[in-house]
Amino acid sequence: MPKIAVVIALALLMTPRPAAATPGEGFDVVRYDLALKPDIQNRTVAGREVIRLRITADGLQSLGFSGNALTIDGATLDGAPVTVRSQNDGLHFELPKPLARGRTVELALTYHGRPARGLAGSATSLHTSYFACDWMICLQDQFGDKAAFSLALHVPAGMDTLSVGRRIARKPAPDGGEIHRWTASRPYSAYLFGFAVGRFARADDRVGSARLAYLSEAAEPVELKRRFAETGRMVRFLSDKAGMPLPVPEYSQLLVEGRDAQEAASYAVLGIDALSTTEGDPAEDWAIVHELAHQWWGNLVTCATLKDFWLNEGITTFMTAAWKEHRYGRAAYEAELAVARSRLDKARAAGFDKPLAWDGPYPTLATRRAVQYSKGALFMDHLRAVLGEDAFWAGLRRYTRAHAGGTVTSLDLQRAMEASSGRDLRPLFSEWVFGPPPYPPR
Questions:
Q1: What residues have CB less than 8 Å from 231, skipping those under 6 apart?
Q2: C-alpha distances in angstroms, 239 versus 207, 243, 280?
Q3: What is the CB neighbour count within 10 angstroms for residue 274?
Q4: Model pTM?
Q5: CB atoms within 10 A of CB 173
């Protein structure tokens, strides 16, 4: 090799690669389209996925997504092959040439593997729970990046399926199985994507124009009706407090073994052990209403970042207490908030208490929940006491209606409550939510 060629080769080897973009940086996802074949017994998946995205930064050289344990078999960008690298911070698709701001492209990929998280079930069923980006390629913690979603599930013949939105087709597959096609009615944050496969008993109900479905392989229709008997009343109560009807035309609840309590975009997964064994027991009446409340606060109105996650979880924890007050009386409301207070007191005793919109690390998941769930609920109760019934509930309705389908920060809630009450709430939000002055801009 000529000397000059050796020098060039060494220079290329020594030139640092461009820093990989943080997952989600430089683009917005417009939609995810999946064709997925889950294996119930082996807890594996094989999929084809097309991600349509819009570039928001000039000269973007890689596309970063949340990391997982899947094997990427191939990937193309608008038909041209791209290289994928798995790093500690996620999956990075290296682009053949930089992309310009404003361009819309499609990343197509195939993959297979056993997800490390996000899949559970029995010997004859499978359901997902929260960690969507472990069984597909997506952005797990980019709550503000809502995207359209469709899923074609390839399952054995005769199986029932559940996913986001509504099922639009059920057709035979060439191998004797079936393809069930589901599509979401509106864009959602990726953590709300999910599916279930099994042979499910089903019971149906209706509240207003919305359909309610109760599914399980662990219970028959009569038991499903009994366990979910309060759902219609909960929908009416939450609709009134939100100032909006149930945001989805059909809401399903999948009853499984264990203690699951997890919302998805248009359904919830609920474990038998998380539900009350005694009808009308206010001490245990929480999982159904908490996950249902997320259809408004969390799914419809979503915190823009994890910093304001209390807007998802603190409000729904408070609404669980509010439902108990409505259904069982004031003592049940106070008992629910006493649980929140004890959890926050435990965190404080361990030396940890932060404003609700604090952006730093939490030592444990339990501590995070003590602040974002429990302290968030206690702040909503405090707001209610300070503002009074009319102004408080009017503020919550204003907040929900104004941001339906979008994303929010804590300042959006402050503005809604100020508009409904006619009061300057900066000192109160500083004390509980933002920390000491200077106050955030109005």
A1: 205, 207, 212, 214, 253, 288, 292
A2: 11, 6, 21
A3: 20
A4: 0.92
A5: 15
